Amino acid sequence: MEILRAENLCKIYGTGETEVRAVDGISLSIEKGEFLAIVGASGSGKSTLLHMLGGVDRPTSGKIYMDGQDIYARNDEQMAVFRRRQIGLVYQFYNLIPVLNVVENITLPTRLDGRPVNMERLNELLSVLGLENRKDYLPNQLSGGQQQRVSIGRALMNAPAVVLADEPTGNLDSKKSQEIIELLKMSNRKYSQTMVIITHDEDFALQADRVIEIVDGRIRQQA
After folding, report:
1. Dist CA 168 CA 35 (whole Å)
2. In whole numbers, what is the pLDDT of the chain averaged over residues?
3. Within a 10 A sphere around the Cβ of 109, how many other Cβ atoms?
4. Would you place residue 204 in the very low, low, confident or very high pLDDT band (cuts 50, 70, 90)?
5. Comparing C-alpha atoms, which of 84, 23, 3 is closest to residue 74?
6. Given the DSSP bridges, would you call strands 35-39 and 210-215 parallel, antiparallel or unpaired?
């Protein structure tokens, strides 16, 4: 069953001689529960595509549908609610709030949404992420791998339908990278969440259900 679909998606920056087509006419279908890896050189348009799929960056033209609904037909307030409830975003540089502890960072999307925290899910995530003994720690008291686990926990807290990760292992050594990969694979299997991952790690990409290569804003091949 299809969960996400992009139709002739374009993102253009600048005009005339300074025009840059970061994403140039991409059409893409993603199945519910799929683990999809997106690869490509720096500047190929991978992150721009991911941000448009997640409702972060509006396309210049084209459509994105989630469960058959045009996500960009929403106004800004509706888009914010959509992102909090339906999309989990994991960034390369963690984007944690430095004055909030582990639990506060993980539960931030829930609290911003004005909803009570599901303590059962929170405790399960802390256990799965290996953060039970770090829940009161601030980000600067954690290792890079632990901070990325907190970022993943925040993305998973609201049980989003789709998790989008932009180079989630980019700042980690090989051991910690594999731990993060296993966490994302586990979440994909256990919670049946759709995963779309941007990575330069060939071994990581090969563990996905499908790999898409982006070159100059276009899909060159799928495997």
Report:
1. 14
2. 90
3. 21
4. confident
5. 84
6. parallel
DSSP 118-132: -HHHHHHHHHHTT-G
List b or e across 133-158, with b for residues whose CB sees 16 or more CB atoms inside 10 angstroms: ebeebbbeebeebbbbbbbbbbbbbb
Domains and CATH numbers, the chain: 32-58+77-222 (3.40.50.300)
Instruction: Name the amino acid, one letter, at 106.
Output: I
Give the orientation angle of helix 174-191 with respect to helix 144-156, to 10 degrees.
10
DSSP code per residue over 180-206: HHHHHHHHHHHH--EEEEE-S-HHHHH
Reported as a single tens digit per residue, the pLDDT across 56-108 is 999 999 999 999 999 999 998 899 889 888 999 888 777 899 999 999 999 99
50: three-class secondary structure by DSSP: helix
Q: What are phi and psi of 27, to 5 degrees?
A: -120, 135
Confidence of residue 197 (pLDDT cuts 50, 70, 90): very high
Give the tokens for residue 132: 């039970």
